[in-house]
Amino acid sequence: MGEEEVKQEEKEIKEKPKEKFKLSFDYFNESRLGIFALIIGIIVAIFPGLPAFIKGIGMMIVLLWGADSVRKTARYGLGTGVPSIGVLAMGFGIVGGITGIAVASLSFGTLVVGGVEIAFGVLAGVALLALLGFVSGNLANGDKFINMKIPGLERGMTELGIAGTLAVLIETSIISGTYAITNVLPNAINNGVIAVIFIISAFAMLQPLNTCLGADERRGRTLLMSIEIGGIASIILGLVTTLTLSAVQGVPLIVLGAVVWVVFYRAYMKACLEEAYAVKGTGLIKTLGG
Amino acid sequence: MIETLLLVLVCIIIGGLLSSLAVHLMPVGGAPAAMATATGIATGCVMLMTGAAVTGLFTASTVASFWVTKPNVILVALSGAVGSMLMIGFTMFVGNLIYIFGAGIVPCSGRVAVDPITKDSQTEYKTPRTDGHGVPTASFVSGILGGFSGGFGGALIYVVLVSDSYAHFSVATAGIVAMGIFIANAIIAAYNIGGTIEGFHDPKFKARIRTGLTCSLIVSVLCGVIIVIAMLTGTLAGGVM
Amino acid sequence: MEPIVMLFAWMLIIAFLAFIACMFEDLESDIGSQSNPNSQIQLAPEMGYIHRYFNKAISGEGLSYALSCTISGTIAMLILLQLESVGPTAALLAIPVGAAVGSLVHMVRSSVCHVGREAAHKRFEQPIYLDVLYGHLLPIATHNFLAVICITAIAYIQSNLGILSGVAGASNPFPLPLLCLIWGLTVGAIGSSTGDIHYGTERAFQDKPFGEGRRVVYHGQICRYGACGTRTSKDVAAFCAKYGGPATGLAFGLIVLFENWRTVIGMTLGGVAGPGWNPSLAAAWGIGIGIVIAVVLVILARTIEKWARNKYGPFVGE
Question: How many separate domains does chain A show?
Answer without folding.
Answer: 1
